[in-house]
């Protein structure tokens, strides 16, 4: 069963939202220092996911290349989030990894 | 019944998608010249709606001000789209006007 | 002497860059916790400044409204940065306040 | 002589501006239909160039990957613009090709 571009766009928007929520929650934690890399990657991931949704809905001819890069950034963000016990990080890791997988499935 | 920030963010994402689809469809029409203003406003509206969704999910303190501006741009985009008979324009007009209303309800 | 839209766009791009550099530098500080509000506002300010530059160069009819909001966010970001002694915060405060002023002068 | 990240960011911002000006000018032409692909690519190129400038100034670890994709989009946008005689398209072609080259030199 093939992954559609609509599934990618939908998951990318969910991932953007989750990354932004994690970004905001990380900045409220007591030990923000520990979350620095998470905060950086949340922002990168939210930006690229937002652009994927925009490129796909306007049928850009570079949608596929962007999705390929999105898979990498989602994977890295998910891997980083997974290291932290906070609920928002665990939730973000889950959604980022799902998004990475959907992106890879689409590109394949 | 109050309009929640989640409703605004959800509608803004729907509006971003619809504006991007309208942007792409306008560029495929035979008379693109007539659609120039629609194409411009679709892009403006998609950009501001995307930023509203991002600001709200990361709890920016300027979310409300941005939503106020979003209401204006959605209204203008919906008004322009409404002038054109194409299905994508009529659909876009509907969603833009809904988004403008949700934004105004939230700010009020 | 009037402030031109080109001056606004130029200053907004400088402000976007400075805010992003401050964002990154804040995340390298020992006491990131203290910088949380600065990190948030750096991101908001960079986003809105980037959109101002984009709206102005494509002659969006909402450029002026966006610049008005940009002035507010730049002012808030500059005020927050000013509280911190780090060179990157002081530099960011300076550029944000300049950008706020250029924006206000243009809108006036 | 090596290409620095500052040179990439600087050229990307110039390219974003030129693409946005070309986008707006294309929509004022008599034969907008002919410019449809140019309008699409101008938007894609402006978006990716803006993100490159943002990623680089905040020292994202994905800056290089994004620059690689930016080179491709700039090349495609420059190739399309080059087909059209309008001054804004010729100017945009020149800057896009320069940006593609700077991006490739940096990644190499």
UniProtKB/TrEMBL annotation, chains A, B, C, D:
Which residue positions does the secretion signal occupy?
A: none
Q: Which domain of life is it from?
A: Bacteria
Question: Which PANTHER family does its entry note?
Answer: CYTOPLASMIC PROTEIN, CYTOPLASMIC PROTEIN-RELATED
Q: What is this protein called?
A: Four-helix bundle copper-binding protein
Its source organism is Desemzia incerta
């Amino acid at each position: 069963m093939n992954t559609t571009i609509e599934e990618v766009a939908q998951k990318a928007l969910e991932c953007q939202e989750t990354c932004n929520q994690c970004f905001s929650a990380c900045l409220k934690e007591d030990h923000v220092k520990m979350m620095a890399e998470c905060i950086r990657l949340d922002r990168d991931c939210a930006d690229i996911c937002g652009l994927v949704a925009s490129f796909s809905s306007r049928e850009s001819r570079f949608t596929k290349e962007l999705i390929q890069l999105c898979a990498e950034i989602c994977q890295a963000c998910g891997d980083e989030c997974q290291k932290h016990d906070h609920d928002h990080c665990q939730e973000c890791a889950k959604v980022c990894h799902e998004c990475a997988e959907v992106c890879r499935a689409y590109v394949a």
